[in-house]
Design goal:
This protein has helices spanning about 5, 10-15, 20-35, 40-70, 75-100, 135-160; strands at about 105-110, 115-125, 125-135. It has about 160 residues and is of the alpha+beta class. It has a three-stranded antiparallel β-sheet with strand order 1-2-3. Strand 1 and strand 2 form a beta hairpin. It starts with a helix and ends with a helix.
């Protein structure tokens, strides 16, 4: 289309076009100029959580089953505590998934080997990847499970003091 026809208004008004198509047509040139924005530190942290929380949940559920089947005297206590931890982790994972969806962030597992796991993500049209080593996963999961246990103990102590 020539420059004379582009800005005079007659050309645009003479064409039969749905409003959403006209918007898309006008925004096409604006979108080409915009570069995708890199994710913030908080969003990267959310993506890491999205990778680690399901693994934590699986570990806790497995340990709860093992505690139920063990011959220890306090197996019921261990099992119930592990089930509470698993529920807390699962609730956090659901909140995290909702937050990622709201921010238009998607994370995909690319490759897993015995040393590391590689994930690809798309965050508001920006596409990149990150890698997490097995050692980092183990250390981080151990720390986070400790935090969940501390939170559970604090909740139990808080409830006990109010009664």
């Amino acid at each position: 289309m020539s420059k004379k026809l582009e800005k005079n208004g007659l050309w645009e008004s003479s064409r039969m076009m749905l409003p959403q198509h006209k918007e898309a047509f006008q925004n096409r040139f604006q979108k080409q100029a915009l570069q995708p924005v890199r994710p913030t530190a908080e969003e990267i942290h959310m993506m890491k959580d999205y990778v680690l929380l399901p693994i934590m949940h699986a570990i806790i559920v497995k340990k709860a089953r093992e505690a139920e089947q063990s011959s220890e005297t306090l197996r019921l206590l261990y099992s119930k505590a592990a089930q509470l931890l698993a529920r807390n982790v699962h609730d956090d994972l659901n909140r995290l998934k909702k937050g990622l969806t709201e921010k238009s962030i998607r994370v995909f597992e690319e490759e897993i080997n015995h040393q590391e796991a590689r994930y690809r993500y798309i965050c508001r049209e920006y596409e990149d990847h990150f890698t997490i080593t097995r050692d980092y996963m183990r250390a981080e999961i151990s720390i986070r499970i400790g935090r969940y246990v501390d939170g559970l103990v604090a909740t139990v102590i808080g409830v006990e003091r109010t009664n």
